[in-house]
């Protein structure tokens, strides 16, 4: 067989295998299967600083870990943060126990799991979105990073679970949680 014919056969095989890859990726996308290491699922969570009319340092009206959002490990988490208070607030996902620090560390537990002006916070009416992949099972905190706010109670829990099948929130309806 001539070298040109061998080269042509190899080229045809490569094209066929490339076409197969394109077909498999298209099928995976259509079936909503994970592709190339992307998170399998996504959840939207709404967290409002000082949502309650009674005031205080709280998220969605809850403080000191009274609200727990649970997400399965590997899920993308999209947090819609809003400040409804007259005092500046921020949001970060940090390791459990961070609320005991007067000024929490600015490094979040997951890349992207923080508002940018963590210590300064944002004024009333600010709406921001932070997105991260919950890729490590464990217990974490949603905390306000403005110095002193976590210590006085402005923190709630995030559990990244290796056994959960779907996101949930406790108490029920404490936060808007929707699966995409």
Explain how this protein is built.
This protein has 180 residues and is an alpha+beta fold. It is 16% helix and 30% strand. It has one helix at residues 3-30, and strands spanning 42-49, 68-72, 75-83, 92-95, 127-134, 138-143, 155-161, 168-170, 176-179. The strands form 2 sheets. Strands 4-6-7-2-8 form a 5-stranded mixed beta sheet, with no helix packed on it. The longest helix is centred in the N-terminal third of the chain and has 28 residues, at 3-30.
CATH top-level class of the largest domain = Mainly Beta
End-to-end CA span: 55 Å
- H/E topology pattern: HEEEEEEEEE
Q: Overall pLDDT, averaged?
A: 83
Shape: globular
Structural class of the helix and strand makeup?
alpha+beta
What's the domain count?
Answer: 2
Task: Tally the beta strands.
Answer: 9
Largest sheet: 5 strands, mixed
The CATH homologous superfamily of the largest domain corresponds to Cupredoxins -  blue copper proteins
CATH fold-level name of the largest domain: Immunoglobulin-like
Count every helix, treating DSSP H or I runs of 4 or more residues as helices. 1
Q: Which regions have little confidence, pLDDT < 50, spanning 5+ residues? A: 19-25
CATH architecture of the largest domain: Sandwich
The radius of gyration computed from the alpha-carbon positions, rounded to a whole number of angstroms, is: 22 Å
């Amino acid at each position: 067989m001539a070298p040109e014919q061998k080269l042509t056969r190899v080229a045809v095989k490569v094209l066929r295998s490339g076409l197969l890859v394109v077909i498999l990726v298209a099928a995976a996308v259509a079936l909503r299967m994970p592709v190339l290491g992307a998170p399998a699922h996504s959840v939207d969570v709404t967290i409002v600083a000082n949502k309650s009319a009674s005031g205080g340092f709280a998220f969605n009206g809850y403080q000191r870990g009274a609200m727990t959002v649970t997400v399965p490990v590997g899920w993308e988490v999209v947090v819609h943060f809003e400040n409804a208070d007259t005092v500046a607030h921020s949001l970060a996902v940090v390791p459990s126990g961070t609320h005991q620090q007067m000024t929490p560390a600015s490094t979040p537990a997951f890349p992207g799991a923080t508002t940018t002006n963590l210590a300064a916070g944002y004024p009333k009416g600010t709406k921001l979105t932070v997105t991260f992949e919950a890729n490590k099972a464990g217990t974490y905190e949603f905390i306000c990073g403005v110095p002193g706010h976590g210590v006085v109670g402005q923190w709630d829990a995030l559990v990244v679970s290796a056994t959960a099948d779907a996101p949930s929130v406790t108490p029920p309806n404490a936060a808007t949680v929707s699966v995409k």
